[in-house]
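User: Please run a holo structure prediction.
Assistant: Happy to. Please share the sequence and the ligand.
User: Here you go; the ligand is zinc ion.
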Amino acid sequence: MKFVVKSKKVLTGGVLKKASVLIENGKVADVFEYDKIPDCVTEDFGELVLMPGLTDTHVHINEPGRNEWEGFETATKAALAGGITMLADMPLNSIPVTTTSDSLDLKIHSSKNKLYADTGFYGGLIPDNADQLGPLIEKGVLGLKAFMIDSGIDEFPFVNEGDLRRALSSVSLRNVPELPVLVHAETDCGFIRPDNYSGYSFRSFLDARPAEWEHEAVKILIKLCREFRHHIHIVHLSSAGSVELIREAKSEGLPLTTETCPHYLFFSSEEIPDNDTRFKCTPPIRDSKNREKLWEAVIDGTIDFIVSDHSPCDPGLKFLNEGNFENAWGGIAGLQFSLPVFWTAAKERGISIEKLSGLMSKRTSEFLGLGNKKGKIEKGFDADIVVFNPDKSFKVEEKNIFHKHKTTPYSGRELCGVTETVFVRGVKVFDKGRIISPAAGEIVLNKKFY
Ligand SMILES: [Zn+2]
Protein backbone atom coordinates (compact mmCIF):
# COMPACT_ATOMS: atom_id res chain seq x y z
CA MET A 1 0.00 0.00 0.00
CA LYS A 2 1.53 3.21 -1.26
CA PHE A 3 -0.05 6.66 -1.17
CA VAL A 4 0.70 10.34 -0.68
CA VAL A 5 -0.63 12.92 1.76
CA LYS A 6 0.14 16.56 1.03
CA SER A 7 -0.50 19.99 2.48
CA LYS A 8 0.81 23.52 2.41
CA LYS A 9 1.78 23.06 6.07
CA VAL A 10 3.65 19.82 6.73
CA LEU A 11 5.80 19.75 9.85
CA THR A 12 8.99 18.11 8.66
CA GLY A 13 12.65 18.83 9.33
CA GLY A 14 11.58 20.97 12.29
CA VAL A 15 9.57 23.49 10.23
CA LEU A 16 6.15 23.88 8.65
CA LYS A 17 6.39 23.88 4.88
CA LYS A 18 4.64 22.88 1.67
CA ALA A 19 5.37 19.19 1.13
CA SER A 20 4.13 15.80 -0.03
CA VAL A 21 4.66 12.73 2.10
CA LEU A 22 4.95 9.33 0.48
CA ILE A 23 3.71 6.54 2.74
CA GLU A 24 4.54 2.94 2.05
CA ASN A 25 4.06 -0.12 4.27
CA GLY A 26 3.20 2.04 7.26
CA LYS A 27 6.37 4.12 7.07
CA VAL A 28 7.24 7.50 5.69
CA ALA A 29 9.02 6.40 2.50
CA ASP A 30 10.00 9.93 1.55
CA VAL A 31 9.13 13.60 1.85
CA PHE A 32 8.93 15.44 -1.49
CA GLU A 33 8.48 18.96 -2.66
CA TYR A 34 4.82 19.93 -2.71
CA ASP A 35 4.32 19.63 -6.49
CA LYS A 36 6.58 16.66 -7.16
CA ILE A 37 4.14 13.88 -6.42
CA PRO A 38 4.94 10.30 -7.40
CA ASP A 39 2.29 8.58 -9.45
CA CYS A 40 -0.04 7.15 -6.79
CA VAL A 41 -3.21 7.92 -4.81
CA THR A 42 -2.89 11.36 -3.26
CA GLU A 43 -4.90 13.06 -0.55
CA ASP A 44 -4.52 16.83 -0.45
CA PHE A 45 -5.24 18.42 2.94
CA GLY A 46 -4.98 21.98 1.65
CA GLU A 47 -3.97 24.44 4.37
CA LEU A 48 -4.38 22.02 7.29
CA VAL A 49 -1.32 21.16 9.37
CA LEU A 50 0.17 17.68 8.94
CA MET A 51 2.22 16.92 12.02
CA PRO A 52 3.67 13.84 13.71
CA GLY A 53 1.24 11.95 15.94
CA LEU A 54 1.60 12.81 19.61
CA THR A 55 3.25 10.44 22.10
CA ASP A 56 1.72 10.65 25.58
CA THR A 57 4.04 9.07 28.13
CA HIS A 58 1.69 9.31 31.12
CA VAL A 59 -1.69 7.60 30.93
CA HIS A 60 -3.59 5.53 33.50
CA ILE A 61 -5.73 3.02 31.64
CA ASN A 62 -6.61 0.91 34.72
CA GLU A 63 -7.29 -2.36 32.86
CA PRO A 64 -7.35 -5.18 33.89
CA GLY A 65 -9.17 -4.96 37.19
CA ARG A 66 -10.53 -1.44 37.21
CA ASN A 67 -12.14 -1.53 33.77
CA GLU A 68 -15.05 0.44 35.18
CA TRP A 69 -12.69 3.45 35.56
CA GLU A 70 -11.23 3.35 32.04
CA GLY A 71 -10.12 0.70 29.59
CA PHE A 72 -7.79 0.01 26.68
CA GLU A 73 -10.47 0.46 24.05
CA THR A 74 -11.96 3.71 25.32
CA ALA A 75 -8.62 5.24 26.29
CA THR A 76 -6.89 4.51 23.00
CA LYS A 77 -9.91 5.73 21.00
CA ALA A 78 -9.86 8.95 23.03
CA ALA A 79 -6.13 9.21 22.37
CA LEU A 80 -6.71 9.11 18.61
CA ALA A 81 -9.46 11.72 18.85
CA GLY A 82 -6.86 13.89 20.56
CA GLY A 83 -4.11 13.31 17.98
CA ILE A 84 -2.19 10.85 20.19
CA THR A 85 -0.91 7.82 18.28
CA MET A 86 1.40 6.33 20.93
CA LEU A 87 0.96 6.20 24.68
CA ALA A 88 2.54 4.63 27.72
CA ASP A 89 0.35 3.09 30.40
CA MET A 90 1.16 3.53 34.09
CA PRO A 91 1.55 0.47 36.37
CA LEU A 92 -1.41 1.60 38.48
CA ASN A 93 -4.43 1.62 38.88
CA SER A 94 -5.06 -1.76 37.31
CA ILE A 95 -5.60 -4.91 39.40
CA PRO A 96 -3.06 -6.30 39.76
CA VAL A 97 -0.71 -3.32 39.65
CA THR A 98 2.15 -3.90 37.19
CA THR A 99 4.82 -4.61 39.78
CA THR A 100 5.69 -8.16 38.76
CA SER A 101 6.58 -9.92 35.57
CA ASP A 102 3.34 -11.97 35.77
CA SER A 103 1.23 -8.86 36.13
CA LEU A 104 2.88 -7.40 33.03
CA ASP A 105 1.91 -10.57 31.15
CA LEU A 106 -1.68 -10.10 32.33
CA LYS A 107 -1.61 -6.47 31.25
CA ILE A 108 -0.32 -7.35 27.80
CA HIS A 109 -2.82 -10.17 27.47
CA SER A 110 -5.78 -8.03 28.48
CA SER A 111 -4.87 -5.31 25.97
CA LYS A 112 -4.96 -7.65 22.99
CA ASN A 113 -7.32 -6.55 20.20
CA LYS A 114 -8.37 -3.50 22.18
CA LEU A 115 -5.66 -1.03 21.20
CA TYR A 116 -6.46 1.71 18.69
CA ALA A 117 -3.22 3.60 19.33
CA ASP A 118 0.23 2.06 19.84
CA THR A 119 0.76 1.36 23.52
CA GLY A 120 3.66 0.54 25.82
CA PHE A 121 3.80 -0.21 29.54
CA TYR A 122 5.74 0.86 32.60
CA GLY A 123 6.59 -1.38 35.51
CA GLY A 124 6.06 -0.33 39.11
CA LEU A 125 8.87 0.21 41.61
CA ILE A 126 7.64 -0.42 45.16
CA PRO A 127 9.54 -1.17 48.40
CA ASP A 128 9.43 -4.95 48.15
CA ASN A 129 9.68 -5.87 44.47
CA ALA A 130 13.45 -5.64 43.89
CA ASP A 131 13.48 -9.20 42.52
CA GLN A 132 10.93 -8.23 39.87
CA LEU A 133 12.71 -5.22 38.39
CA GLY A 134 15.08 -7.30 36.24
CA PRO A 135 12.30 -9.51 34.80
CA LEU A 136 10.09 -6.46 34.13
CA ILE A 137 12.94 -4.76 32.26
CA GLU A 138 13.72 -7.90 30.28
CA LYS A 139 10.07 -8.19 29.27
CA GLY A 140 10.20 -4.73 27.78
CA VAL A 141 8.78 -2.09 30.13
CA LEU A 142 9.48 1.43 28.90
CA GLY A 143 10.45 2.67 32.36
CA LEU A 144 9.80 2.14 36.07
CA LYS A 145 7.41 4.27 38.09
CA ALA A 146 7.57 5.03 41.81
CA PHE A 147 5.72 7.22 44.28
CA MET A 148 7.30 9.14 47.14
CA ILE A 149 3.88 9.69 48.74
CA ASP A 150 0.63 7.74 49.13
CA SER A 151 -0.41 6.65 45.63
CA GLY A 152 -4.07 6.27 46.55
CA ILE A 153 -3.82 2.50 45.90
CA ASP A 154 -2.95 0.22 48.84
CA GLU A 155 -1.13 -2.36 46.73
CA PHE A 156 1.18 0.30 45.29
CA PRO A 157 3.04 1.55 48.40
CA PHE A 158 5.38 4.51 48.18
CA VAL A 159 9.16 4.38 48.43
CA ASN A 160 11.47 6.47 50.57
CA GLU A 161 14.98 7.64 49.76
CA GLY A 162 16.48 4.38 51.07
CA ASP A 163 14.19 2.24 48.90
CA LEU A 164 15.09 4.28 45.84
CA ARG A 165 18.79 4.06 46.67
CA ARG A 166 18.55 0.27 47.00
CA ALA A 167 16.77 -0.03 43.65
CA LEU A 168 19.18 2.29 41.85
CA SER A 169 22.17 0.41 43.20
CA SER A 170 20.74 -3.00 42.20
CA VAL A 171 22.33 -4.82 39.30
CA SER A 172 19.03 -4.69 37.42
CA LEU A 173 19.11 -0.91 37.25
CA ARG A 174 22.86 -0.35 37.17
CA ASN A 175 22.93 -2.18 33.85
CA VAL A 176 20.38 0.14 32.28
CA PRO A 177 21.20 3.69 33.39
CA GLU A 178 19.21 5.18 30.51
CA LEU A 179 15.95 3.40 31.42
CA PRO A 180 13.85 6.14 33.02
CA VAL A 181 12.80 5.86 36.64
CA LEU A 182 9.70 8.03 36.79
CA VAL A 183 8.86 9.44 40.19
CA HIS A 184 5.85 11.16 41.69
CA ALA A 185 7.82 13.85 43.47
CA GLU A 186 5.98 14.81 46.63
CA THR A 187 6.98 13.79 50.10
CA ASP A 188 4.79 14.26 53.15
CA CYS A 189 6.52 16.88 55.32
CA GLY A 190 3.50 17.32 57.57
CA PHE A 191 0.72 19.88 57.60
CA ILE A 192 -1.14 21.40 60.53
CA ARG A 193 -4.75 22.09 59.71
CA PRO A 194 -5.83 25.64 60.56
CA ASP A 195 -9.18 26.25 62.30
CA ASN A 196 -10.85 27.31 59.06
CA TYR A 197 -9.80 24.15 57.18
CA SER A 198 -12.64 22.59 55.19
CA GLY A 199 -12.71 19.44 53.08
CA TYR A 200 -15.07 21.23 50.71
CA SER A 201 -12.75 24.14 50.02
CA PHE A 202 -10.27 24.00 47.16
CA ARG A 203 -8.15 26.53 49.02
CA SER A 204 -7.86 24.16 51.99
CA PHE A 205 -7.01 21.23 49.71
CA LEU A 206 -4.29 23.31 48.07
CA ASP A 207 -2.86 24.46 51.41
CA ALA A 208 -2.73 20.87 52.63
CA ARG A 209 -0.54 19.88 49.67
CA PRO A 210 2.14 22.61 49.87
CA ALA A 211 4.82 23.27 47.26
CA GLU A 212 7.46 22.37 49.88
CA TRP A 213 6.40 18.73 49.61
CA GLU A 214 7.36 18.78 45.95
CA HIS A 215 10.53 20.70 46.63
CA GLU A 216 11.79 18.24 49.25
CA ALA A 217 11.16 15.29 46.92
CA VAL A 218 12.88 17.03 44.00
CA LYS A 219 15.93 17.65 46.20
CA ILE A 220 16.16 13.94 47.05
CA LEU A 221 15.78 12.93 43.42
CA ILE A 222 18.51 15.29 42.26
CA LYS A 223 20.80 13.92 44.95
CA LEU A 224 20.13 10.34 43.78
CA CYS A 225 20.52 11.33 40.16
CA ARG A 226 23.95 12.78 40.94
CA GLU A 227 24.92 9.72 42.97
CA PHE A 228 23.87 7.05 40.47
CA ARG A 229 23.90 8.93 37.14
CA HIS A 230 20.69 7.06 36.38
CA HIS A 231 17.95 8.69 34.29
CA ILE A 232 15.41 10.03 36.76
CA HIS A 233 12.22 11.64 35.55
CA ILE A 234 9.99 13.92 37.61
CA VAL A 235 6.38 13.37 36.61
CA HIS A 236 3.74 16.12 36.61
CA LEU A 237 5.72 18.99 38.10
CA SER A 238 3.18 21.41 39.53
CA SER A 239 5.25 23.78 41.66
CA ALA A 240 7.35 26.35 39.84
CA GLY A 241 9.26 26.72 43.10
CA SER A 242 11.40 23.73 42.12
CA VAL A 243 12.18 24.91 38.60
CA GLU A 244 15.42 26.67 39.54
CA LEU A 245 16.74 23.58 41.30
CA ILE A 246 15.92 21.43 38.25
CA ARG A 247 17.50 23.98 35.92
CA GLU A 248 20.74 23.89 37.92
CA ALA A 249 20.76 20.09 38.02
CA LYS A 250 20.34 19.94 34.27
CA SER A 251 23.07 22.47 33.65
CA GLU A 252 25.31 20.25 35.76
CA GLY A 253 24.70 17.54 33.15
CA LEU A 254 22.64 15.21 35.31
CA PRO A 255 20.38 12.75 33.46
CA LEU A 256 17.24 14.38 34.88
CA THR A 257 14.06 15.11 32.93
CA THR A 258 10.75 16.70 33.89
CA GLU A 259 7.23 16.86 32.57
CA THR A 260 4.19 18.93 33.34
CA CYS A 261 0.58 18.58 32.23
CA PRO A 262 -1.94 20.73 30.36
CA HIS A 263 -4.12 21.20 33.45
CA TYR A 264 -1.28 22.91 35.34
CA LEU A 265 -0.73 25.25 32.39
CA PHE A 266 -4.38 25.97 31.64
CA PHE A 267 -6.19 26.35 34.96
CA SER A 268 -5.27 28.31 38.04
CA SER A 269 -6.38 27.76 41.62
CA GLU A 270 -8.12 31.17 41.74
CA GLU A 271 -10.76 30.02 39.27
CA ILE A 272 -11.52 26.62 40.83
CA PRO A 273 -14.76 26.70 42.77
CA ASP A 274 -15.15 25.01 46.12
CA ASN A 275 -16.84 21.59 45.92
CA ASP A 276 -15.76 21.04 42.30
CA THR A 277 -13.78 17.84 42.73
CA ARG A 278 -13.31 17.37 38.98
CA PHE A 279 -10.25 19.56 39.52
CA LYS A 280 -8.70 17.38 42.20
CA CYS A 281 -5.34 15.99 41.24
CA THR A 282 -2.04 15.63 43.06
CA PRO A 283 0.10 17.62 43.18
CA PRO A 284 -2.64 20.26 43.02
CA ILE A 285 -3.25 23.00 40.46
CA ARG A 286 -1.62 26.11 41.95
CA ASP A 287 -2.12 29.87 41.44
CA SER A 288 -1.75 31.87 38.23
CA LYS A 289 1.61 33.31 39.25
CA ASN A 290 2.95 29.78 39.62
CA ARG A 291 1.36 28.82 36.29
CA GLU A 292 3.13 31.60 34.40
CA LYS A 293 6.46 30.50 35.90
CA LEU A 294 5.77 26.96 34.71
CA TRP A 295 5.21 28.39 31.24
CA GLU A 296 8.62 30.07 31.40
CA ALA A 297 10.17 26.69 32.23
CA VAL A 298 8.30 25.07 29.33
CA ILE A 299 9.52 27.77 26.95
CA ASP A 300 13.15 27.65 28.06
CA GLY A 301 13.24 23.83 28.04
CA THR A 302 13.71 23.22 31.77
CA ILE A 303 10.47 21.27 31.54
CA ASP A 304 11.19 18.72 28.83
CA PHE A 305 7.71 17.81 27.67
CA ILE A 306 3.94 17.86 28.16
CA VAL A 307 1.79 14.80 28.86
CA SER A 308 -1.79 14.29 30.00
CA ASP A 309 -1.54 12.26 33.24
CA HIS A 310 -5.00 11.05 32.26
CA SER A 311 -6.21 9.53 35.52
CA PRO A 312 -9.95 8.97 35.46
CA CYS A 313 -12.12 7.00 37.85
CA ASP A 314 -15.69 5.87 38.22
CA PRO A 315 -17.61 9.19 38.52
CA GLY A 316 -19.02 8.07 41.87
CA LEU A 317 -15.52 8.26 43.32
CA LYS A 318 -15.31 11.95 42.52
CA PHE A 319 -18.19 12.51 45.00
CA LEU A 320 -19.42 15.34 42.82
CA ASN A 321 -22.68 15.82 44.71
CA GLU A 322 -20.95 15.92 48.06
CA GLY A 323 -18.04 18.03 46.76
CA ASN A 324 -15.54 16.87 49.37
CA PHE A 325 -11.94 17.11 48.16
CA GLU A 326 -10.70 14.77 50.87
CA ASN A 327 -12.93 11.90 49.78
CA ALA A 328 -12.67 12.40 46.03
CA TRP A 329 -10.29 10.42 43.82
CA GLY A 330 -7.30 12.54 42.81
CA GLY A 331 -6.92 12.51 39.07
CA ILE A 332 -8.01 14.49 36.04
CA ALA A 333 -9.50 12.96 32.92
CA GLY A 334 -8.00 14.82 29.99
CA LEU A 335 -6.35 12.46 27.49
CA GLN A 336 -8.51 13.49 24.53
CA PHE A 337 -8.08 17.18 25.25
CA SER A 338 -4.39 17.37 25.99
CA LEU A 339 -3.53 18.76 22.55
CA PRO A 340 -6.25 21.42 22.21
CA VAL A 341 -5.93 22.50 25.87
CA PHE A 342 -2.19 22.97 25.52
CA TRP A 343 -2.57 24.62 22.11
CA THR A 344 -5.29 27.02 23.32
CA ALA A 345 -3.05 28.27 26.11
CA ALA A 346 0.19 28.08 24.09
CA LYS A 347 -1.19 30.13 21.21
CA GLU A 348 -2.03 32.98 23.58
CA ARG A 349 1.62 32.99 24.62
CA GLY A 350 3.00 33.07 21.08
CA ILE A 351 4.17 29.44 21.04
CA SER A 352 4.43 27.85 17.61
CA ILE A 353 3.16 24.50 16.31
CA GLU A 354 6.79 23.48 15.82
CA LYS A 355 7.47 24.06 19.52
CA LEU A 356 4.29 22.21 20.49
CA SER A 357 5.29 19.23 18.40
CA GLY A 358 8.72 19.16 20.04
CA LEU A 359 7.06 19.08 23.47
CA MET A 360 4.34 16.55 22.72
CA SER A 361 5.75 14.31 19.98
CA LYS A 362 9.49 14.47 19.48
CA ARG A 363 10.76 14.60 23.05
CA THR A 364 8.14 12.24 24.44
CA SER A 365 9.04 9.69 21.75
CA GLU A 366 12.73 10.09 22.54
CA PHE A 367 11.96 9.61 26.22
CA LEU A 368 10.49 6.16 25.49
CA GLY A 369 13.50 5.20 23.40
CA LEU A 370 11.50 5.61 20.17
CA GLY A 371 13.34 8.68 18.87
CA ASN A 372 14.29 6.98 15.60
CA LYS A 373 10.80 5.64 14.96
CA LYS A 374 8.18 8.09 16.17
CA GLY A 375 7.74 11.83 16.70
CA LYS A 376 8.84 13.11 13.29
CA ILE A 377 7.60 13.08 9.70
CA GLU A 378 10.83 11.99 8.12
CA LYS A 379 12.02 9.20 5.91
CA GLY A 380 12.04 5.87 7.75
CA PHE A 381 9.75 6.97 10.59
CA ASP A 382 6.37 5.37 11.35
CA ALA A 383 3.68 7.14 9.33
CA ASP A 384 1.85 8.38 12.44
CA ILE A 385 0.36 11.60 11.14
CA VAL A 386 -2.20 14.02 12.56
CA VAL A 387 -4.15 16.38 10.35
CA PHE A 388 -4.69 19.34 12.65
CA ASN A 389 -6.70 22.51 12.22
CA PRO A 390 -5.02 24.99 14.58
CA ASP A 391 -7.54 27.77 13.92
CA LYS A 392 -10.81 25.95 14.46
CA SER A 393 -12.49 26.03 17.88
CA PHE A 394 -14.89 23.60 19.48
CA LYS A 395 -16.80 23.20 22.70
CA VAL A 396 -16.13 20.19 24.94
CA GLU A 397 -19.45 18.34 25.07
CA GLU A 398 -20.27 14.93 26.49
CA LYS A 399 -21.40 13.53 23.17
CA ASN A 400 -17.93 14.01 21.71
CA ILE A 401 -15.94 12.49 24.60
CA PHE A 402 -14.39 9.08 23.94
CA HIS A 403 -13.15 8.52 27.53
CA LYS A 404 -15.15 5.82 29.32
CA HIS A 405 -16.64 8.50 31.59
CA LYS A 406 -17.55 12.03 30.60
CA THR A 407 -16.52 13.71 33.85
CA THR A 408 -13.77 16.21 33.10
CA PRO A 409 -12.98 19.75 34.21
CA TYR A 410 -12.83 20.75 30.54
CA SER A 411 -16.61 20.27 30.08
CA GLY A 412 -18.21 23.25 28.43
CA ARG A 413 -14.87 24.88 27.63
CA GLU A 414 -14.26 26.44 24.25
CA LEU A 415 -10.92 25.08 23.00
CA CYS A 416 -8.88 25.84 19.93
CA GLY A 417 -7.35 23.17 17.69
CA VAL A 418 -9.23 20.32 16.07
CA THR A 419 -7.84 16.89 15.19
CA GLU A 420 -9.42 16.25 11.78
CA THR A 421 -7.78 13.01 10.67
CA VAL A 422 -5.25 10.57 12.16
CA PHE A 423 -3.05 7.95 10.51
CA VAL A 424 -1.38 5.26 12.63
CA ARG A 425 1.47 3.58 10.75
CA GLY A 426 -0.14 4.64 7.48
CA VAL A 427 -3.69 3.50 8.28
CA LYS A 428 -6.39 6.15 8.47
CA VAL A 429 -7.93 5.37 11.83
CA PHE A 430 -9.78 8.56 12.77
CA ASP A 431 -11.61 10.99 10.54
CA LYS A 432 -13.99 13.89 11.21
CA GLY A 433 -14.88 12.89 14.74
CA ARG A 434 -15.17 9.15 14.16
CA ILE A 435 -13.01 6.06 14.58
CA ILE A 436 -13.05 4.46 11.13
CA SER A 437 -10.78 1.45 11.51
CA PRO A 438 -10.70 -1.72 13.64
CA ALA A 439 -8.28 -1.85 16.57
CA ALA A 440 -4.83 -1.98 14.98
CA GLY A 441 -2.65 -0.45 17.68
CA GLU A 442 0.54 -2.34 18.44
CA ILE A 443 2.09 -3.22 21.77
CA VAL A 444 5.42 -1.43 21.96
CA LEU A 445 8.02 -3.17 24.10
CA ASN A 446 11.47 -1.91 24.87
CA LYS A 447 13.70 -4.27 22.96
CA LYS A 448 16.89 -2.50 23.90
CA PHE A 449 17.45 -4.57 27.01
CA TYR A 450 16.60 -8.07 25.78
ZN1 LIG B 1 -0.19 9.75 36.96
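The chain has a mean pLDDT of 97.
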